């Protein structure tokens, strides 16, 4: 399903007090008497899609102008995804866009219920609408758009070489970036290699072991307090087992006292099971205390002051601390840094070989891109010639028989994402005139017809789903006007088309005809925009033809035009 504009609500814009336009999927035409506000419809659509806000267009007496559009889009499609990415909502395939302009010139925009910068509407419009009017022909005047449109027109013949070129271009860009880094940063990389070598040599000289800093700190604490530790162990041992130098008969050690307690309880244990349990626990305590005393004696024997070892430990700790301050938080971290530094140094020392490999690959890719870019140019030149001829033929039928459109391709010196071709649509107003850029080679009214011819030729290849034309019929009439209507109807087979016109020959081809009428006070109110049935269309076309709604000659001519348009469908 192609997106389309379903409804537009306009308030306080120009002569429009309030108007609602309900639009059909095909060819919509808007007519009305001069000054009725038809062009404000195009202005409103322009504002809705990010157009410049002009406070002078606000209706006198109103403090602001507002436009709200309801669009039907594909749920989960590209546009819906863009809206959801910025936090907007799309409900059941319906998107609401709003824009307000204050009398002071301030502008606000909403997309899917969320306030957004006006530039967001402009960005989104690239995928939704193309506005062609006297003051607004921007979309296909952009060089990037022109190249993209020509590529779509070229079709399948361009797809395969463009895909191959794109893949080669991405790799070429990656290789070029790597080469630039390796060559332009050679000094920085050499300095980095020197720092890494110095660090690795320093670490290798010290040769730290995992956890060594923790072990050394513990050993230093023990050696620094050897006397205190030995004294404490000896005192504890004496308290548990007693001093062998002390006279017998005055036991004060824990083992002796436990023995006395156990003997007292053992003597009467048979008289009470509860006390027997206590006796067993006293026996266990005696065994445990004896084991602890043995350990204390062994510990006291092992501890001795060793000033030489203490100095060696302190010196080793100082060296390790120096490494830790520079490279990590502990000795294990220092070893990890050394491992990473060795790997990085291997990369840096292999730069020369890597540069040679990348240079060879870069040269091969450059040759490949040159060949692929030449193939793209060949396909584009053929498509450009065919396209220029087709548009020129369309212009002949649109009352511009001497105009000629050409597609000029120039080659850039640098490879780009789409090749080396720069595409520009140009027009020569008459055979002796040089082809000029579209916005310089045609007047405002002519430019709308040129754009119509281009869009008709591009129809099906251009993904834009809605086209808006204002003044596309300026300065023409008769047969040329019929041809304009015929081509707008042809364009409406693949897209929604909205046209403001004063020519009945154009209006007759519409699928839906909206008429804008002023109220008695000169404003356009909600009831002033009407979708016409067949009888209403006859009356409106008759007015446009003869100036009188009920002129028999005008009505007959109107019926004839409607019949001609119907037979063309």
TrEMBL record:
RecF/RecN/SMC N-terminal domain mapped to chain residues: 6-521
Upper taxonomic lineage: Bacteria, Bacillati, Actinomycetota, Actinomycetes, Streptosporangiales
Function: May be involved in recombinational repair of damaged DNA.
Family membership: Belongs to the RecN family.
Record-linked Gene3D superfamilies: P-loop containing nucleotide triphosphate hydrolases
This protein's record includes keyword Disulfide bond: no
Designated name of the protein: DNA repair protein RecN
GO biological process, alphabetically ordered: DNA recombination; DNA repair; SOS response
Keywords: ATP-binding, Coiled coil, DNA damage, DNA repair, Nucleotide-binding
């Amino acid at each position: 399903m192609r997106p389309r504009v379903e409804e537009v609500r306009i308030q306080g814009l120009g002569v429009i007090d309030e108007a609602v336009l309900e639009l059909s999927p095909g060819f919509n035409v808007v007519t009305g008497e001069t000054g009725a506000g038809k062009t404000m419809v195009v202005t409103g659509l322009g504002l809705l899609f990010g157009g410049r806000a002009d406070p002078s267009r606000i209706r006198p007496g109103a403090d602001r102008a507002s436009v709200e559009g309801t669009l039907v889009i594909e749920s989960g499609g590209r546009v819906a995804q863009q809206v959801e990415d910025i936090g907007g909502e799309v409900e059941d395939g319906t998107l609401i866009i709003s824009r307000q302009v204050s009398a002071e010139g301030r502008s606000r925009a909403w997309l899917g219920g969320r306030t957004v910068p006006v530039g967001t509407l402009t960005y989104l419009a690239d995928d939704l609408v193309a506005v062609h009017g006297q003051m607004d022909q921007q979309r296909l005047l952009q060089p990037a758009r022109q190249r993209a449109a020509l590529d779509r027109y070229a079709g399948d013949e361009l797809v395969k070489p463009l895909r191959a070129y794109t893949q080669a271009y991405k790799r070429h860009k990656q290789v070029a970036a790597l080469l630039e880094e390796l060559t332009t940063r050679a000094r920085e990389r050499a300095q980095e290699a020197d720092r890494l070598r110095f660090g690795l040599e320093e670490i290798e000289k010290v040769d730290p072991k995992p956890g060594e800093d923790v072990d050394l700190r513990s050993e230093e604490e023990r050696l620094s307090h050897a006397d205190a530790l030995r004294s404490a162990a000896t005192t504890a041992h004496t308290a548990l087992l007693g001093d062998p130098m002390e006279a017998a008969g005055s036991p004060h050690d824990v083992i002796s006292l436990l023995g006395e307690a156990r003997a007292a309880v053992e003597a009467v244990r048979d008289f009470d099971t509860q006390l027997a349990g206590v006796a067993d626990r006293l026996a266990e305590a005696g065994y445990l205390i004896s084991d602890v005393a043995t350990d204390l004696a062994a510990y006291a024997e092992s501890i001795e002051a060793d000033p030489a070892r203490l100095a060696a430990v302190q010196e080793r700790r100082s060296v390790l601390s120096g490494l830790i301050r520079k490279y990590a938080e502990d000795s294990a971290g220092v070893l990890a840094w050394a491992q990473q530094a060795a790997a990085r140094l291997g990369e840096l020392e292999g730069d020369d070989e890597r540069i040679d490999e990348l240079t060879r690959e870069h040269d091969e890719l450059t040759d490949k891109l040159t060949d692929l870019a030449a193939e793209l140019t060949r396909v584009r030149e053929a498509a450009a010639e065919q396209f220029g001829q087709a548009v020129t033929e369309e212009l002949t039928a649109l009352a511009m028989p001497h105009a000629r459109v050409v597609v000029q391709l120039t080659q850039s010196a640098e490879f780009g994402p789409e090749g080396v071709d720069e595409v520009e649509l140009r027009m020569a107003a008459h055979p002796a005139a040089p082809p000029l850029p579209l916005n310089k080679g045609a007047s405002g009214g002519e430019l709308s017809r040129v754009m119509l011819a281009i869009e008709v030729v591009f129809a099906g290849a251009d993904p834009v789903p809605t086209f808006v034309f204002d003044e596309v019929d300026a300065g023409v009439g008769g047969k040329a006007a019929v041809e304009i209507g015929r081509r707008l109807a042809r364009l409406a087979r693949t897209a929604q088309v909205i046209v403001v016109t004063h020519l009945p020959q154009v209006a007759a081809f519409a699928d839906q005809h909206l008429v804008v009428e002023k109220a008695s006070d000169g404003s356009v109110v909600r009831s002033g925009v009407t979708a016409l049935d067949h009888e209403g269309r006859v009356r409106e076309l008759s007015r446009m033809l003869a100036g009188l709604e009920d002129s028999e000659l005008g009505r007959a001519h109107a019926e004839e035009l409607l019949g001609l348009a119907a037979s063309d469908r």
